[in-house]
Each structure stands twice: as C-alpha cells, then as structure tokens.
Amino acid sequence: MPQECQCLRGIWTMPLITCFNFWTGERNNGFDVLYHNMKHGHLSTKDLADFIRERATIEEAYSRSMTKLAKSASNYTQLGTFAPVWDVFKTSTEKLASCHLDLVRRLQELIKEVHKYGDEQIKAYKKTKEDVSGTLEAVQNIQSITQALQKSKENYNTKCVEQERLKKEGATQREVDKAAVKSKKATDTYKLYVEKYAAFKSDFEQKMTETAQKFQDIEETHLLRMKEIIESLSNTIKEIHLQIGEVHDEFINNMTNTTVESLIQKFAESKGTGKERPGPIEFEECNTSSAVEGMKPRKRKPFGLSGIMKKEKDTESNIPDVDDEGYSIKPEATQDILFTNHFYSSSDSDSEDDEPRRFHVEIKPVQPNNSSQYTMPSLDELKVSIGNITLSPAISAQMTRNSSSKCESLTFSLFMLAY
C-alpha cells in the first residue's frame, strides 16, 4: 500500500511508491524498468527543448511577417484624409513585431537552460549507474537463485513421487532404498536453495529499496525541474501576451483619439492652398490707343498653289537684277571677286575696262498661225516660260536672291516687251 508523506531528519519526503509497484514481475525486472525510466527522463528533456525551439521558430517567423507588414503600411496610398491612419497601423504593428521578437529571445535563453539541465542529467545518470551496481548484482542473484530453486523443487517432487510409486507397486527392497537415497538428496538440495533464496531475498529487498528510493528521488527532481521550465515558459508567454495586450489597448486609444475632425484638419493643414479668399475684380475700359501702338504689322503670305509657288521660288533664284531698259546689272563686288579669283592671274587685268557689263535680253513672241484664234497667255504661264531661262552657272551661282517685288517687275517688263 502506498504510504503517506514521512518526515525523515526534518525533511518531508514523498512515500516510496516505486517499491510497492516494482517488487514482483517476470524475473524480477522491476529494477530494469526503473533504470530505463530514469534514462527516458533525458529524452523528455530533449523533446521539451525541441518543442520550445519550434515555438521560438514560429514566433520568429511571425515577428518577421509583422515587420514586413509594418513596412508595407508605408507603401499604401498616402492620399486623402485616411492617410494618417496608416501611421497608427504601422506603429502598432512594429510594436507587435517587437513583442514577438522579445519572446523569441527569451525562449532561446530558456532553451539554453534546458540544455544545461540535460547535461546535468547525463552526469547524474552516470553516477547513479555506479551507485546501483550492487543492486543490479542482487537482482541477478535473486533471478538465478529463483531459477535454481524452481528446478530443485521440481526434482524433489519427482523423486518423492518415484519413491512412493515403488512402495505401492511392491518393488524390491533394493529399488526402494535406492529411490529413498535419491529423494533424500533432492530434499537436501531443495532446502539448500530455499535457504539461499531467503538470504538473497533479504539482500535484494534491502538494495532494491535503497535503489528504488534513488530512482524516485531522481524522478521527483526531474519532474520538478521540468515543471519549473514549463512554468518559466508559461510566465514568459504570459508577460509577452500582457505586452501585446498593452499594444492593442494603445492602438484602440489611438484610433479613438483619431477623430474624423482631426483627420480632416490634418488634411487641410498639409494640403491646404491658402486661407485668403479671392479679391473682387472690377470692369476696366479697353485702351485702344495703347493696344494699336503695341501691335506689329502682319505679313501677308502670297496665295498660290504649292507647285507654282515652288517653281516661282526656283525661278526667283535664277533671275538677275535688271535696269529700266531691261538689261541685267552685273553685281559689282561679287563679280569682281569672282573674276579676280577664277579668271585673272596676271597684272594685265588692270588695263581692261572697269565698266560693268550689260546683257540685253530680247524675247521675240511666237507668231501665231491664225491670229483670230490667238489668246493672250496668262501671267502664270509667262512665269513658267521665263523660269526655264538660265544664265551661266558660274555667274548665276554668285548672284543674290531677288525679292518678290523685283521678280514681279521683271515679269511685267518681259510681258510688255513680248506684246
């Protein structure tokens, strides 16, 4: 029966539960069960460390996700009156990420503490294995003596039954005496093993009691230490959750203080375009005199088709300046430079006539075959015809372009000469 807690040497101890449940069994294997159970304690410690490490990994991943979420809050649109609310979200999310990161740091410290306890367990197990070596020997003795006792008992019963059978069957006295000797020998052997078993049993009980107490003390220490680790884990998570609760409360308060009026006020202060209203504008009379003086004369573009205008432009570039009688006027400066550079290389050029050369252009109109059907050509047709007349390339290349008024004067002169 399990006993109540006892006070030994001023220290309250738990009742010895292990001995009451591990005395008997197949081949007295209670010791083997208790010994392996002690080794299983180290496996439990390792599993607990793995569990806490996995929790820390989850918290770390959650913290990174919250940090990423806080950064994404800055990327949301900052337009409109709702924009300041994202700052509240960002601050709250960053604090939550910090809380979970703090939990990761504390869990990592707790994992180190669990590993340290695991190393202490290994040292304690090695020492316990040396201490319980005598108990292991006692267990082996009780196991061997139990087997020998069982065999001697079976042999004793067999010999006694054989002797009694020979007596009942009326066997010879020699056979009965021989069976009696064997029975007596089996009886002595059986009694010897019973006595040995009693001695081994006493030693086994004493050592097994002491060893069971050691195993129980180890398990009590192990379980208490594991409970302390779990309590530390629970308190750590509780503290972090309290911090998370404070962050949530702060978020609620910030959202409560972020009123609609304050959001609109912030928008007006940051995006406002000015507080002054537009001034009045009165009607002003138009000052025509100043407007006319400031105007620039407009140039009228000549009206004509694109093809004709292009031909006129090409014709203008090839028509030289003419005098009142229709003779072309040689450009003085340009032609002097041209002739000096290209035609004259000796000093004989100074003796020639310095008067400008004049070219007489005479256009004879075509006599029509039938004067009655003759029609006067238009001005455009004359321009086209005259445009085909070109001067020498060397001279025409050096002539300046004439204005449109001179071209029209030349065209009119040619027209009058023709008719």
Average pLDDT works out at 75
User: How many DSSP H or I helices?
Assistant: 12
The order of strands across the largest sheet is: 1-2
At CATH level 3, the topology of the largest domain is Substrate Binding Domain Of Dnak, Chain:A, Domain 2
Helix/strand-derived class? mainly alpha
Oligomer: single chain
Shape: elongated
What is the count of structural domains?
Answer: 2
Flag low-confidence runs.
Answer: 1-13, 333-352, 394-408
Helix percentage: 55-70%
Please give the largest β-sheet. Answer: 2 strands, antiparallel
> Can you name the CATH architecture of the largest domain?
Up-down Bundle
Radius of gyration: 65 Å
Order of helices and strands: EEHHHHHHHHEHEHHH
- Quick one: CATH superfamily of the largest domain? Arfaptin homology (AH) domain/BAR domain
What is the number of strand segments? 4
Level-1 CATH class name of the largest domain: Mainly Alpha
Termini Cα gap = 157 Å
Strand residue content: under 5%
Domain F-BAR: 15-263
Protein name: F-BAR domain-containing protein
Keywords: Coated pit, Coiled coil, Endocytosis, Membrane
Membrane topology: Peripheral membrane protein
